[in-house]
Structures are given as C-alpha cells and as structure tokens.
Amino acid sequence: MKRIMLVLVLLLTASFTLAAGPLAVHVIDVGQGDAIFVQSPDGKTMLVDGGERNGMAEKYLDSLGVRTIDIVVATHPHLDHIGGLPAIIQKYDVKQVVMPRVTSVTTVIYQQLLEAIKAKGLRVTEGKAGLVLDLGPSMTVECLAPNGTEYKDLNDYSVVLKLAYGDVPILLTGDATAVSEKEMLQFHGNKLKSTILKIGHHGSSGSSSAAFIKEVNPQVVAFSVGKGNSFGHPTQTIWNRVSGSNLFRTDEQGTAIFVTDGRQLAAYSPPVNGQYLALAPYQTPGALVAQAQPAATQPPIAAQTQPTTAAQYPQTASEETVYITKSGTKYHKAGCSSLSSSSIPMSRAEAAQKYGPCGICKP
Length: 363
Known about the structure:
single chain; alpha/beta; 11-stranded mixed β-sheet; globular; disordered N terminus
C-alpha cells in the first residue's frame, strides 16, 4: 500500500483517473457509540451502526438531507451500536440490512430492531467474512469478520468492513476484540492494510492488539468515543499504540468527514454557515502540520444520492494559498519570517511554476 502524508490533503502518486465522484466517510459524533455514514462515489449510501437511542445519528442524517440508505449494517447487537437503528429503519427508505447471526440476544432494543426490519418487509443479510456488499462499481466493500459462529463476547460477532476506493483502503472494525483480530490476521493477512482505521471498541485495551495494528499500519486513526465516558476510553495503551498515526476523536473534535477521490484524502468538520472546514488531527505526528482553514463552500459530496462533480470536490493541496514578495524568488507559508508586509497571495500550483519553496518555512 502506498504511504500517504497528511497535511490537510493526502497526496498519492497514482496516475490513473477515476470517473466517479469522491467517497465520503462520516464518523459521526453520537457520544459513547458508533455510527458511520458512507456516501459512495457512485451515489449509493451505507450506514454502519446507529449509536444509542439519543437520536444523534438520525439528526445528522437529516442535516445531510438523506432520504434513502442503500445498506444498513448493525455490526453487533449492543445498545451503543444499534440503539438508534429501529427509528432510522422506520424513517428512511432502507434497501438492505446486514447483521451477524447471533441467536442468544433477547434485549428489548434488539427485538425492536428485528420488528422494525420486519415491518419494512426487509430480510436480513448475514454479515460474515467473505460477504461482498454493493455500493457501486467504483469501490469495493468486503466483510472480513466475523470468521466464526461461536464467541463468548458479543463484540467478537462484529461485522468488520474493508472499503477500498482507488489507492485509499478504509477499515471499520466495530467492537471486534483481539480474539476476532487474531482470526483476521490468520485468514486475511495483507488484506488488512488500510489508510484509515476506525479503531475497535472505542479504544478499549481489549481491542487493537499490537500485531493487528502493525498489520493494518494505518496512517489515519479515528476514535468514536463519548466525552467523559465512564469506561476510560480511549485507554492510554491504545492511544500510545497508534500515536504514530494522524489521530481524530469524536469526543474532542466532533464528527470527522473523510473525503477521497481514490488518490487524495482530506478531513473535514461538518459545515458551519454552509462552509466546510479542514479538520486537523488531534495529535499530529512528527513534522506533519495540518491547520484548520476554510476549505469549500460546497459540501465535499452531494447530500442526495448523486455523483459529485469535480467542482464540488474540496480544495486540494495544489490550491492551497501561499505567499510571495514582489522581488523574491521563493514562495512561503503565511507568517513566515522571510515575508514582508507587501506579501502577495497565490495558489501553490501557480507559485510552483515560477518560484521555489522557502527553505525556512518549507511550504
């Protein structure tokens, strides 16, 4: 897998051109729980879990103008993952429901979910390793777990999804623990490598084993976790284990929207007054720098299930603003000590044609 540097936009060296629009993965802030909304390059949608019964996932979907969800995935039957799904299935035009086969669950919320599915006339597709889901021809979605049928911990029934679009693979692990991770390492090996990892079980020490993290080798890690939660998530052990990656966490930063065209990757906060803002990592490793700044006045992907045009795609690194001086030969970052008060703004792409990068601020 190609390595990607995150500086607002992650650039790859691939030379191919993708005809479809971008892929957007929304890691929604639902408190202590999971809800991830996927908008495919071909206009299809998928919701992975729905958070608790607090309506936060539903409210976010409404803010996007969502009416249809092609696939709803309930990774496993714990309240913080399926609590919001009965209301969501009742409200939206859902085409397919994917769930693991678990026969021992008798909770009220699980029964409500089954009743909502039945009331819509839907059949449950069993979520298990090897299942391939259809979000359009431009990307692939494959289930890598569960790989067994008998687990002591309900978390190990978690449906683990590997999304891939161009050179950007994404791994969504639900609450899978080290038991399921060991099976995935055994059966899937190199297939686990991913640019983005939604960390397992909110950063619990029972998930994200050292061997698993080493194999996935994520460059971006997203924590879906509740602020001030009583479980101590994310644990310091797991935080340290992925500290070399660019880290995002919903309890501190809110919803994170990852957008890619298969070659470039950007992170955004939900729009404020119609404007999407670039979202910096919570912890920026090494010398990487990512500062929040206005990115686009249009959504990174259309709210409705329609492919996004090139004009709607967020600002790329070549469009970032840099600065020159009238008599200088270098271009600079804002605030560089080499800049004078008469600095002139221009795009990085335009500046690179006539000037060299400053050796001090290294734009």
